[in-house]
Amino acid sequence: MKPHNFAGQKAGRRALVISASFALAASASIFAPAAFASPADDKVEAAKAAETNAANSVAAIEAQLAQVSTQTQNARDLAEEAEASYNDAISNLVVAKQAADKTAQDSQEAQEKVEQARKALAGLARTIYTTQGSLSSLTPYLNADGLQTVEMRKVSVELFGSKADSQMRTFESIAKVASVLQERATQAQQEREQAASELKTQKDAADQLKAASEKQLTDLGAQRGELIKQLAAARGVTEQAEKERQEQIEAERKAREEAAAQAALKAAEEKARKEAEQQKAREEAAKKRAQEQKQTNNSSPAPKQTSTSKSTNKSQPKASNRAAKQENNQKQATGSNASRSQIIAYAKQFIGVPYVWGGSSPKGFDCSGLTSYVYRNAAGIKLPRRAVHQRGVGKFVSKSQAQPGDMVNYSSHVGIYLGNGYMIHAPKPGDRVKIARVYGNPVYVRVL
User: Biased composition, Polar residues: where in the chain (predicted)?
Assistant: First the structure.
């Protein structure tokens, strides 16, 4: 009997199991459904991707448009500053011409008075000669130079008497005035010539900057047009429709800016009103305290003078001085607030007044004419006539510290700060006093 082969049986069974497994796997692969995306799913994914790409494209183009708008505004601001410099130079020349004409006229009138006084003295000399003197002794007094020296004046008193001395004094006084006016006329003429030279320099600079700005604006306009075209394609609308949409966006922006300007004025007026009320309340309270103190002093009997009371009396002037100093400081603080409110309220009434070169009255203002007129009449502060000189009157403050009533100064242009990034100013010829956005990088000057 052969021995039983258990190892062979195990190997056979193992091979049978493996074969069965492969067969089952094969049959499963035959009968299982295929796993692939449907055409509908592909279209949905493609649509989502296209929508995302379009949105990204629109956002990118709109960001570029916003950047172009910012660059365009900056270019306009630079052109406006250049124009302001030119207009300021024209105003300076107008003012210098007016001053030169006025001083020249004053000098001429003074010289005429000097000549009249000289003739009067000469007439007196001739009269005295006909009665009591020799003409040779009077010769020094009959020409222009002979009346100027102390020695000649001394001799004239001896020869002509007190009447001649009085006329000599009158002549000397008139001659001194004429000399001062002549110096002023000469200086005014020099300033006029300097203003004319400065005008030419500013005009050349303004023309160059204007040409550069116009080229930049043209380039930016072309870039904007191309971006609008791309944006229309990305949004799936016509180019005309996109242009109209952008125009509407710009109109809404300007409307918001105008509303912000009016809000700034309203806020400044409200602040001014509250400050005025607070000042009035403080003044009434101070007046009431003063009356009560006066009544107390009148009703209190005079204390008996002792060594202690004498010492107390000596200390009273010091206390009074301290109280007076505190009251004065309070008046200065409230006066500053009042002046700010008065400046804003006073400046507001000139909105709409036309711009006039060299103008400094409600009939017409240039930029520095407006500020000098407002600060002088609203707060009693006398400013130089030119914008570039006005910035040297007060102290500079940062943009974050600027308050209503401060000056906004561009060296060649100036306005009055309202707050919230807006100012009242006289911008340029053909325009009027108005509220406008503070543009560029001015300095803020506090004069209160």
Answer: 326-338
Q: How far is CA 341 from the centre of its chain?
A: 17
Q: What angle do CA 69, 73, 79 make, to 5 degrees?
A: 145
d(CA 367, CA 436): 13
Using the structure block, give the residue that is written with the tokens 């944006």.
Answer: 231
The pLDDT tens digits for 362-374 are: 999 999 999 999 9
Higher pLDDT, 73 or 222: 222
Give the pLDDT confidence score for residue 318 in this predicted structure.
Answer: 53
DSSP 3: P
How far from chain centre, in Å, is Cα 418?
10
The mean pLDDT value of the chain amounts to 76
* Interacting residues of 358 by C-beta distance below 8 A, sequence separation 6+: 90, 91, 94, 95, 98, 366, 369
Place of tokens 């001014």: 272
* Nearest C-alpha neighbor of 397 from the set 448, 330, 440, 335: 448
Helix (H) or strand (E) holding 198: helix 162-235
User: How, if at all, do strands 414-419 and 434-437 pair?
Assistant: unpaired
Determine contact, residues 408/417, Cβ cutoff 8 Å: yes
Question: Tens digits of per-residue pLDDT, 81-125?
Answer: 778 878 888 887 888 888 888 888 888 888 888 888 878 777 766
Q: Which of 417, 405, 420, 416 is nearest to 264 (CA)?
A: 420
Write out the CATH class of domain 264-279+341-448: alpha beta
**CA gap 245, 410 in Å, rounded:** 36
Closest to 366 (Cα-Cα) out of 374, 355, 376, 375: 355
First to last CA, the chain: 132
**pLDDT tens string 197-229:** 888 887 888 788 788 888 888 888 888 889 888
Q: How far apart are CA 162 and CA 166, in angstroms?
A: 6
Share in percent of the chain as helix, strand, coil (round to 5): 75, 5, 20
Q: Can you give the residue ranges of every domain in the chain? A: 55-235, 264-279+341-448
Q: Say which residue the tokens 């200390």 belong to.
A: 315
Spatial separation of the C-alpha atoms in residues 389 and 383, rounded to whole Å: 8
Rounded Cα gap, residues 374 and 367, in angstroms: 11
Residue type, 214: E
Residue 131: phi, psi to the nearest 5?
A: -105, -35
Contact indicator for 341, 278 with CB cutoff of 8 Å: no
55-235 fold: Helix Hairpins (1.10.287)
Full-model pTM: 0.56
How many Å apart are CA 87 and CA 100, to the nearest integer?
20
Query: Do 149 and 156 touch, CB atoms closer than 8 A?
Result: no
**Interatomic CA distance for residues 228 and 225, integer angstroms:** 5
